[in-house]
Amino acid sequence: MNMKAILEKINNTPVPKVKKVALAYSGGLDSSLAVALLRRVYKAKEIVAITLDIGQGEEEIIESQKKAKVLGIEPIMVDMKKEFTKNWLTRAIYANSDYLGYPVSTSMTRQIIAKKVAEMAAKMGCDAITEGSSGKGNDQYRMHNVFKTFAPDLKILVPVRDFDLTRVEEEELCRYWDVPVTETIRGGDDKTMWCRSIASGAIGLNQELPDDIWMWYCPPEDAPDKPEIIEITFQDGIPVGLNKRNKTLAQLIAELNVLGGRNGIGKIDMFEDGIMDLKSREIYEAPAATIILKLHRDLEQFCLTKDEVQFKKMVEQKWAYLVYHGFAYHPLRAALDAFLKTTQDVVNGTYRVKLYKGNIDILSRESKTSLFYPEIRSIATASPSTSPGLKLARITGTPKGAASTWTSSCFSVASRDCFVL
Question: What pTM, to 2 d.p., does this model score?
Answer without folding.
Answer: 0.88
